[in-house]
Design brief:
Blueprint lengths: L2 H7 L8 H8 L5 H10 L6 H12 L4 H17 L2
Length: about 80
């Protein structure tokens, strides 16, 4: 049995094109932020706190990079809704 078949057999499974969403956000390098966004609903941290952490983390790279990563995070949040 293949890995994808096993995942699809789980009761609460969702497949998300993380890389595609990151590309749509502006950079495939933001794939990890899409993943963080998708996981955010299950974390004991408010979305606003995570968004501020993303701003702080990428601030030195410029506003465009901050916005790409925030957009990727938000796409990840919406991917599982």
């Amino acid at each position: 049995m293949g890995c994808l078949h096993r995942i699809k057999s789980l009761m609460r499974q969702r497949l998300v094109d993380f890389q595609g969403l990151a590309k749509e956000a502006g950079s495939t390098r933001a794939t990890n932020m899409v993943m963080v966004g998708a996981a955010a609903a299950g974390l004991p941290v408010k979305t606003q706190v995570l968004e501020q952490a993303i701003r702080d983390l990428f601030a030195s790279k410029g506003e465009e990079i901050v916005e790409i990563n925030l957009r990727a995070f938000r796409f990840g949040c919406k991917a599982l809704n």
